[in-house]
Design goal:
334 residues, alpha/beta, Rossmann fold, 7-stranded mixed sheet, 4-stranded antiparallel sheet, 13 strands, binds zinc ion
Amino acid sequence: MKEYHKNDFDGNLVYGGKTYHGLTGRIDVITDVNESDEFEKHNISDKDLETLKQCPMCNGEEINEFIRKKRLKVYRCNSCDFGFLNPRVKKESSFKLYDQSSRYESLYLNETSNKLDKIKFQYVFQLVKRFISPQSVLDIGSSSGIFLNTCAEEGVQIIHGIEADTSQIKRSPFYQKNFHIETSMDLDLSKKYNNLELVTMFDVLEHIIDFKKTLTEIHLSLAKQGIFAIIVPNFYSLASRIIRDKSPTFNIEHTNYFSMKNLIPLLETLGFEIVHKETVISEISNIKNYLEFNDPYFAEPKNEQWTNFLTPEWIHENLLGSRLFVIARKKQKD
Ligand SMILES: [Zn+2]
């Protein structure tokens, strides 16, 4: 199988930002996130909201408003740098965020998105294989099933997925008959799974209020030396640092905003050993557009010469990419 580089699935680099956002329908998604009142759209009232007085990562009490976008407020903890929506939608009301047909639906069936996702997941699998040749996998939030499909192509025998959006499971061509797919987002995983060799979670943990419990359940359901691979938005990406409230990463569905500074110690505390960490997705066109006084997403950068120092390599060397990608191994207890 072809060896891939992370730049091969970086839409800004493969197509140029403007073309990429057009081809994938992201222009509509970004406009929607940035222009609409997300509370109104999802019919969220005060009784659906809770205000936090402490950091949900470290329980620190020194928390401050950090980013504001219309009525949406993201707070940051001074001790651990964790970011969180505050107020946030309570767990029991969170179904309201997902009950209408998802704003991302157009992305699931999009040819360009699927093409890049296939490469992304082959890249992920290629890295996972450095540590394990898994015979079983569970992908939490399996979306259009592309990662599970990749696993099947790579010879993984036992394939489990969890995806609450049943329309995706029906419509996506990537699900195969022999996949075991659960449609309830009940994440008491250890009741149902054990001895899994690989558990994955791509762009999911930022949505989950009790993220520590979910990670604990993942740890319990893994085999000894089992591998957990996670991709999650990077709160401190260069794009977010520059574009701030205009970045679509700040939205009502994202209740948690992680950085390597807090994700790594969290995983270690829960009994994982980190075997690989990096950032992926440079957002380089978006950054350059903004620095050239243009709309970050809907323009094509002129690549003014002074911006030449901004390369994908420089961005990722400094862990400033748009996503954190971490591979962790369940530590052997003796
Ligand atoms: Zn904290």
